[in-house]
Design a protein that fits this description.
five-stranded parallel sheet; globular; Dihydrofolate Reductase, subunit A; binds NADP nicotinamide-adenine-dinucleotide phosphate; 2 domains
Length: 186
Amino acid sequence: MDYRRAIPQICVMVGIGTVLRDDPELTVRLVKGKDPARVVVDSKLRIPVTAKVLNSKRGSVIIATTHERQEARGKRQKIKKIEAKGAEVWILPSKKKEVDLTALMKEIGKREIINLIIEGGSKFAASAIKERIVDKVAIFLAPKILGKEGLPMIGGLGIRRLSEAICLRKLQCKKIGEDILVEGYL
Ligand SMILES: NC(=O)c1ccc[n+]([C@@H]2O[C@H](COP(=O)([O-])OP(=O)(O)OC[C@H]3O[C@@H](n4cnc5c(N)ncnc54)[C@H](OP(=O)(O)O)[C@@H]3O)[C@@H](O)[C@H]2O)c1
């Protein structure tokens, strides 16, 4: 890996499900500020080369993928196409066929990224909590009711009883516009 490129010390990370569904740029909007490094966890390299995150020409982009089947010709060509867009592809060990988050955090640490925001989606947020790579949680509550058709904020954690719930500590609440921000530590 090439460690010479300067990477911002703030990083925003999402699962490939979010990229495929929402096609976000993951850059700073609405306020002034430096764009974070952007990381997409994408074990099977499903990201389309047309994805906005690869084409916004703002800040560093890292696609974290796994060793599995990277030697396949199509995969090598896709890596080249992604790199031609200026992004980096990190090939990491896998755990249960997905990106091993401990290995990913080690690579992020080597880049001296000290502030990592995991923006979801549902499945990736659950994995991040299960793999214990989360220190602090920030939940925005909007005054909107979706019912069971909505996607859960955090996917399956295998919790069956209220007594097993993960409790947040040192809670802080703030009203932001119409929403409420609840922050707490795991
Ligand atoms: N309201 C919000 O603030 C917010 C924020 C973000 C997203 N969202 C919503 O969330 C939805 C997407 O959530 P999602 O659950 O479908 O997808 P996701 O969590 O964004 O992505 C999950 C995918 O990431 C890949 N992945 C790679 N390594 C992983 C690991 N260690 N653990 C978990 N996943 C890993 C897997 O696909 P591969 O196996 O193919 O790699 C997995 O299926 C969208 O509808 C989006 O709008 C909402």
